[in-house]
């Protein structure tokens, strides 16, 4: 019988090492996929809260300056005060806002070092808060804006 001098191919050890490297690569990809799914869930929750905050902001900007929903004496306000229903999507638990009217005699409202300027009258500072759940963790999205009296 003749002996083969040189054989081409893989040894069992080489095949096992190649399978190990492939397995590690696949496990890494699966963990990246899990992280991406979790990130998408968080982004979805924040998008829902942002959408509701935008809707509420637009409603507040469209009401009259002296509307009941913009009174600073009945803080905090709730989304149930709107004349038309604002339906909360899944995950959003509540919406509230507080109003502070800038009046003469309450100091430097706009932070420019000048007290009671004409541009500081007829302005309401509004803090809008949307409470929502992200993976069973309660979170709050806060939007601050100003509403001016139109003369």
Automatic annotation (TrEMBL):
Transmembrane segments: 12-32
Keywords: Membrane, Transmembrane, Transmembrane helix
Domain of life: Bacteria
InterPro entries: N_methyl_site, Pilus_4_PilV
NCBIfam families: IV_pilin_GFxxxE, type_IV_pilV
Protein name as annotated: Type IV pilus modification protein PilV
Protein's organism: Desulfotalea psychrophila
